[in-house]
Amino acid sequence: MNDFGVLRLGLTKVSNLSRRLFVWLVLIHYSSFLIIGCVNDTDEAAQFFLKGNVQLQKREYKEAIRYYSEAIAKKPDFADAYNNRGLAKFRNDDREGALADYTRAIDADPDFGTAYFNRAEVRLETGDASGSLADLERIGKQYEDSTFYQTRLGDTFVRLTNLSKAQTAYDRALQLKPDNVEALTNRGALYYSQKDYKSAEADIKQALALNPNQDAALNNQSLLLAHAGKYTAALTYVERALARQSRQPYYLNNKAYLLLKLNRSTEALPLVEESLQRDGQNAWAHHTLGLYWLSQQQPAKALPEFRTAEKLDASVDQLYYYIGTAEFATGNKTAACEAWQRGESIGDDASRRERASHCR
């Protein structure tokens, strides 16, 4: 079967470190009914629908929404208009409105595969990974040979921490289309989260060779360089990612982290604060803010940020080392040793060293 026609969308998040890395896809559906119907100039609903499509392609989302609404007013069961209005709302940062429209499209046409796919997208964005998987499974037989479907399936399994199934889906996506930049980028993120840095580097390198301006891949490359301690080089990559997505909260946080590593804490603070304002559920941003307060010799302010990060995602790198460091600095040696012991139990060498030094 043929793959979907695709419009690229910006970055969103997934679990663990790869929360900062992933790219999703969204789809526009044009049914054969609409193509036939639009031949008739008297079909006002179809004419409004076509005008909406033109505005959507021009990224004039408010105008697109207006035309789709006119189409729906003329034809209240116009599933395609609901779907495309949902897409326009999604791209205009109205997630709840998009979710409602995709659901209306499905209500009007229960076999509307693209609307299920798009609803899966917005459900994933709003934290409903189980709902996203249910929608994807609903259309699995129809779209199992679509590289874009397999990419989204992989994204959803990552959010559900079913990493083996995520790996299988990404591998299938790349079997179907070896130059699928999104699948390469997202599989690279998965490898990174599993500390398979060699495989992550190979996927990200290939993604950037295919599209040097892919912001997610640029951000991933920044993280790989940071892992190697090359913070100045890493900063150039995340700045390139931000040049394409200036408000992306994970990129903002990553840049803040790198600035802290380069002893530029004054510049880092507003970036991590903006990142948290845009997404307060990102454990990595809370971790970065904790690092900022440690750099300012204020462990009492750092500790609540680290604890928040722990509640959101306890797999954040060296989290228990820093929790222990903050606890020790505030005079709570017992809590510090407990944190370092927890870190040592999951293989953190920094926690092991601190525990050996202070807790024996």
Automatic annotation (TrEMBL):
TPR repeats: 45-78, 79-112, 147-180, 181-214
Keywords: Membrane, Repeat, TPR repeat, Transmembrane, Transmembrane helix
Superkingdom, natural source: Bacteria
Name of one Pfam family that matches: TPR_16
TM spans (from-to): 21-37
Protein name: Tetratricopeptide repeat protein
Source organism (scientific name): Spirosoma arboris
